[in-house]
Amino acid sequence: MPQGPSSTPEIPETGSVPKHIAIIMDGNGRWAQSRYMPRIAGHKQGVETVRGVIKACMERGVAFLTLFAFSSENWRRPTDEVTSLMQLFLGALEQEIAKLHENGIRFKVIGDISKFDPKIVEFIHLGEQLTANNTRLTFTIAANYGGRWDIMQAMRKMMAQSKDLPLNFEEESLAQYLSMSYAPEPDLFIRTGGEYRVSNFLLWQLAYTELYFTNTLWPDFDEHELELAIQSYQQRERRFGRTSEQLQMLLVR
Ligand code: IPE
Ligand code: IPE
Ligand code: MG
Description:
Blueprint: E1 20-24, H1 28-33, H2 39-60, E2 64-71, H3 79-102, E3 105-110, H4 118-130, E4 137-145, H5 147-161, H6 171-175, E5 188-191, E6 210-213, H7 223-234, H8 244-252
Parallel strand pairs: 1-2, 1-5, 2-4, 3-4, 5-6
The structure holds 3-methylbut-3-enyl trihydrogen diphosphate (2 copies) and magnesium ion.
Magnesium ion (MG) binds near residues 26 and 193.
């Protein structure tokens, strides 16, 4: 039987806690506007939600948490909002890095950070270096990230490193250059804010991820909401192309 290369050969145990949760934190602007507040107030409240979600993930033994904070398309927003978001990002980095480290969290950023203010870049490097050997939870922020950018930069790196690249290279050869090569592919994807799209998030890595959408706006997403998403995940049957009967056979073995 032909067995193509697959980066998802393992079947996680039914009912298990997802090892890797990836979230599109959406709905900050609407949360603020519904309260007659400026959009940035929603983003500020969204940072509070991040704290709660990190804590809840640690308590549940989630190993990887990845949050989409700023997409490669978000530069299209009004300059005021972009500037405020950058200030908020810098402030959060300044305040939180030491706390993340105290809690044994490894901090990572994926995305094209060369476009950010040098101060932000400096804090990112500082945070990544300081927390590099922590093992409790790997917390990744996707900033100026795009799934297409990721695949393109991986391709460029691979081509630059091997001049006589064979044309029939395997998925794994490329995958090692993707910016999240240090993490398993997400088990559970959550999008808050009621939109049903992926908005150029982890395109490659979401191939077999279980998708969960909620109307709850990100600032309102709490531990209970996270629990609902995990419970939904635990009821899914992850087949990775197999039949349900095959899975039953694998489980009884
Ligand atoms: C998500 O919230 C945060 C970012 C994209 C930075 P939004 O700002 O997209 O909130 P809505 O979708 O306008 O409500
Ligand atoms: C996706 O949210 C990006 C982030 C949460 C950082 P958007 O609000 O930018 O997505 P679209 O524009 O509605 O697809
Ligand atoms: Mg949005």
